Amino acid sequence: MNRLSLIFILFLSAAASKVFSQASSIPEFTFYKLDGTKFTQTDVQKRTNTIFIFFDVTCSHCQKETERIGNNYSKLKNTAFYMVSMDEVPAIKKFMGSYGRLLNNKKNFTLLQDKDRQFIPRFMPTRYPAIFVYSPQGKLIKYFSGEVDMKEIIQATKS
After folding, report:
1. Residues 6 or more apart in contact with residue 14 via CB below 8 angstroms
2. Of the residues 29, 100, 139, 147, which has the fewest C-beta atoms closer than 10 A?
C-alpha cells in the first residue's frame, strides 16, 4: 500500500470517527510479532493498563513520541505496550534502533506488524501516532491523536 492510499484511508477513518467513536474496548484483531507469530486480542496482558500505539516509521511525530516514551519508561513500566505498524519488519526494526532503543527488550513492550491492515478499521485512529490507553478489563480509558504531552499519557495510565 502506498502512502497516498494510506492517507486516504486515514482521512476516511477520521470522517468515520465523527460517526463512530474510537474502539471503546479492545477489538478483535490478528497482528504479527516481528518473528511472524500471530498475536491476537486474547494475547493482550490483562493485569495492567494497556497502551496500543499505531505508528508509521516515516512519521516524525511517531519518532518523537517513541523517544519520549522511552525517556519516561520508568513512569510507565507497569503498563503493557503494543506498538503496531503496517510497515515492513526491517523498517520497524530500523525505526526501533533509532528511536526506540530505550524500549527494546523490555518485558512489557511488544512490537507488532499489521500486515493484514486491520488496525485502522478496527481501532479507528485519526492520525499518527494514535495512542489508545485501555484498562485491565480492556475498556478504553483515553485516546490520543497525534503528539501528546507525556504527562497526559502517564496520567491516563494512573486511571
Report:
1. 126, 127
2. 139
- CA angle, residues 71, 119, 32, in degrees to nearest 5: 75
Rounded CA-CA distance 41/96 in Å is: 23
User: How far apart (Å, rounded) are the C-alpha atoms in residues 146 and 73?
Assistant: 19
21 SS3 class: coil
Q: Which residue has the cell 494510506?
A: 6
Rg of the chain over CA atoms, in angstroms? 14
- Whether the upstream peptide bond of residue 125 has omega within 30° of 0, thus cis, is no
For residue 138, which phi and psi values (nearest 5 degrees)?
85, 15
What is the dihedral sign for C-alpha 96, 105, 44, 35?
A: positive
Please determine, for residue 153, whether its predicted confidence score (pLDDT) is greater than 60: yes
Q: How far apart (Å, rounded) are the C-alpha atoms in residues 41 and 29?
A: 6
pLDDT, tens only, 28-83: 999 999 999 999 999 999 899 999 999 999 999 999 999 999 999 999 999 999 99
| 114 vs 72: CA distance, rounded Å | 26
**Does CATH place domain 3-157 in 3.40.50.720?**
no
| Alpha carbon distance 74, 143 (integer Å) | 21
